[in-house]
């Protein structure tokens, strides 16, 4: 493998950042300074950046508790993205969020560089279930729960697949409710629009489950941890 590819995959950054490391004579291969990006390296070579040993990280899977006011993107000119929450030492090339949560939505977000798994989890045919806790302005009723069980027509005419609505609390006097909503697709603002189609408004939204994954109660908003081997196996359906 070319040295510049190795350095990018080991987490040193973009092509131009890697070039800078090389130009600044910060990279050594087997104890010798190396400045050529084209140098071929093999698995037994000892490669260091600023005296720190580098290893290829391979596939990584992080379970992030997405906080509010961070966008689900890999890069943005002006706003903080979920990738800004990842420590440089945990960063790997092609790390990306699987699916999208709105800027004001919190909760479980999977980040990985495993493109195949990301593709499988998002494939419409796979019907991976996602469960959201929501606080609603307005009282959700049994009629709403029944309507969710059937295709629901959104205000723009789009039709959703059957979903599940569980009412956790409803307060007639204060006109608010707390619910769990499970959907198996990922239309734009889907939960908010489904609730709006019933004449009510989502005022707080948190994803608590995605397929075999559950939001880790030990994580605080903005924190993440690697998935366990058993979580990875379950996600991959093994
Ligand atoms: N549905 C929404 O409306 N927003 C989200 O962030 C996720 C699902």
TrEMBL record:
Broadest EC class assigned to this enzyme: isomerase
SUPFAM superfamilies linked to this entry: Alpha-L RNA-binding motif, Pseudouridine synthase
Pfam families per UniProt: PseudoU_synth_2, S4
Top-rank taxon: Bacteria
Key word Isomerase present: yes
Keyword DNA-binding listed: no
Start and end residues of each RNA-binding S4 domain: 1-64
EC number: 5.4.99.-
CDD domains: PseudoU_synth_RsuA (cd02553), S4 (cd00165)
Entry coiled-coil feature ranges: none
Keyword vocabulary terms for this entry: Isomerase, RNA-binding
NCBIfam families: pseudouridine synthase
Family per record: Belongs to the pseudouridine synthase RsuA family.
Record-given protein name: Pseudouridine synthase
């Amino acid at each position: 493998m070319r040295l510049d590819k190795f350095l990018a995959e080991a987490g040193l950054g973009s092509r131009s950042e890697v070039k800078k490391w090389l130009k600044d004579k910060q990279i050594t291969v087997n104890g010798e300074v190396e400045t050529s990006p084209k140098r071929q390296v093999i698995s037994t070579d000892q490669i260091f950046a600023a005296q720190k040993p580098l290893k290829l990280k391979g596939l990584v899977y992080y379970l992030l508790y997405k906080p509010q006011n961070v966008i689900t993107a890999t890069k943005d000119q002006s706003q903080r993205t979920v990738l800004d929450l990842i420590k440089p030492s945990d960063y790997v090339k092609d790390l990306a969020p699987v699916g999208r949560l709105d800027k004001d939505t919190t909760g479980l977000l999977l980040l990985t560089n495993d493109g195949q798994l990301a593709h499988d989890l998002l494939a419409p045919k796979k019907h991976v279930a996602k469960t959201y806790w929501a606080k609603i302005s307005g009282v959700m009723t049994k009629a709403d729960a029944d309507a969710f069980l059937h295709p629901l027509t959104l205000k723009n005419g789009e039709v959703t697949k059957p979903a599940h609505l569980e009412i956790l609390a409803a307060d007639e006097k204060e006109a608010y409710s707390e619910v769990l909503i499970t959907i198996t697709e990922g239309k734009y603002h889907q939960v908010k629009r489904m609730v709006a189609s019933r004449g009510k408004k989502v005022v707080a939204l948190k994803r608590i489950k995605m397929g075999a994954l559950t939001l880790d109660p030990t994580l605080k908003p903005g924190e993440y941890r690697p998935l366990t081997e058993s979580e990875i196996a379950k996600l991959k359906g093994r």
